[in-house]
Fold:
Amino acid sequence: MPLDADAVADLALAHHFPDLAKQAHAARLGMWLFLATEILLFAGLFTGYGLYRFLFYDTFQAASRSMETGLGTLNTFVLITSSLTVALALHFVQHGRRVAGVVCLVVTLVFALAFLGIKAIEYTHHFQEGQLPGQYYHYAAVQGPGVTLFFTLYFLMTGLHGIHVLVGMGVLAVVAVRTWQGAYGPRYHTPLELGAMYWHLVDLIWIFIYPLLYLI
Structure:
C-alpha cells in the first residue's frame, strides 16, 4: 500500500529548516557543489587528452579512426534518451502521477543497462584486437609514439564514466522503489530531483567523451 505522501513530506523536513522549500533549495545547492567537483575531475582528464593529442596528433588521429563509431553513436542516443525519461519521471511525480513516474524511472534503468551492455561489447572487441593500454597494447594496424596513451585515456575516461553510470543506476533504483511506495509526490520529491540532476551530469560527461574519442 502506498505511503501517505503528505505525511512523508512532513517527516522529511529537518528541524533546522523552516519549510520544505528552503530545505530543497539547500539540497540543490549541495548537489550543484558536488556536481562541480565531478566536472573538475573529468575536466582534468579532458585537458590531459587535449595535451597529448596535440603532442601526438597523427597517432591519436589514427587511433581515433579505429574506434567503433557506430557503437559510440548508439550509446550516445541511448543516454540522451535516458535523460528525457528521467526528466519525464520528475515531471510526472511533481504532478501527482506516481505510476507514470515509476515507469519512466524503470525505462531509464533499462537504457542504462543497454548502455553498459553496448560498452561491454565494445570493450570485448578492444580486448580481442589488442587495443589495450600500456605494455599490453599489440594492435598492429595502428602503431606509433603515443598510441598507448590514447587507449590508456580511453579506458580511463570511459571506465570512470561507467562507474558513474553504475552509481546513478543505484540511486535511481532506490528512488524508483521509494516513488512506488508513495514517498515522493507534488509536495516532496527532492531525492528524485537530485537523482535526476546526477543522471543528467552522467549524460553530459558522455556528450564530451563521445566527440573526443570517436569523432575528432
Summary: Residues 49 and 153 are 7 Å apart (CA to CA).
